[in-house]
Each structure stands twice: as structure tokens, then as C-alpha cells.
Amino acid sequence: MEVEVLFEYKHENIIGLVGYCGEKILVYEYASNGSLDRHLENASLTWTERLKIGIDIATGLDFLHGGGYPVIHRDVKSSNILLNDDWKAKITDFGFSVITPLNNEIDLWLIMLSAHLGIVTRCTWKGVS
């Protein structure tokens, strides 16, 4: 699923897939500033930088959701956002994503609900309330 998404959905806020091989190795574009969670933990980002990164993420998600076959990521979190040299946010890790032709709004709500319940289940399983 991840390879399909990354080859079909090209956008400046989605990590670029450079290549892959049959041994399930994916090679992504290099994001020299690492993952967003690392920068949020040490408070190195200004509020202006945080706002820009948030807008980048929203722009990428809008692109994914806006096509005839929307991609629902289902695992957006700071560790799945990479930052390049210019601090542009790149959405990554499409392992849980779903590509679906949405026939109506009920389809979208069911997908979103299943993703939410999956997150709740993982948190409950880990003992987080």
C-alpha cells in the first residue's frame, strides 16, 4: 500500500519515494532535520515555525483527501512528519493508510471511526487512559 501511495500521490508535503526493491526496502528522499517529534520534545521550534509546519501538514492532508480516490492516512503523528533542509514538513509512513473511492459521507465517517477506535484500542492495550 505504501509504495502505491507514494508513487501515485506526488506533493511537496508528502515524502518522496526514491526507490524500492523486492526485499521490502523503501528508499525515501533525505529529510535532514529528522522527525517533528524530536523538535517538539526539546522545544527548539519557534511558534512561527510550528505554524508553518502545521500548515504544511494540513496542505499535504488536503491533497491526500481531495482526489477521486482519497487517501486516509490513519496514523498522523509527529514521528510520522519529517522535516527537510528548508524545514518543509513531509508526511510519511503510509502503512496504515487506505485508498478508497468514497461513495458518500458515511464511508468517510466509517473509515475515520475505525481509525479512531484502533488508536483507542492501542492506547488502552498499553495502559494509557
List keywords for this structure.
129 residues; alpha+beta; Transferase(Phosphotransferase), domain 1; 41% helix
If you had to describe this structure to a student in words, what would you say it looks like?
- The chain has a single domain, classed as Transferase(Phosphotransferase), domain 1 (Orthogonal Bundle), CATH 1.10.510.
- Helices cover 41% and strands 15% of the residues.
- The chain is built from four helices and six strands, in the order αββααββββα.
- The chain is an alpha+beta fold.
- The protein has a two-stranded antiparallel ribbon with strand order 1-2. The chain has a two-stranded antiparallel ribbon with strand order 3-6.
- Keywords: Kinase, Receptor, Transferase.
- InterPro entries: ANXUR1/2-like, Kinase-like_dom_sf, Prot_kinase_dom, Ser-Thr/Tyr_kinase_cat_dom, Ser/Thr_kinase_AS, Tyr_kinase_cat_dom.
- This is Putative tyrosine-protein kinase, non-receptor Jak1.
Number of contiguous helices? 4
CATH hierarchy, class: Mainly Alpha
Count of domains: 1
Order of helices and strands: HEEHHEEEEH
Which ranges are low-confidence, i.e. pLDDT below 50, for 5 or more consecutive residues?
119-129
Cα-atom radius of gyration: 16 Å
Oligomer: single chain
The coarse silhouette is: globular
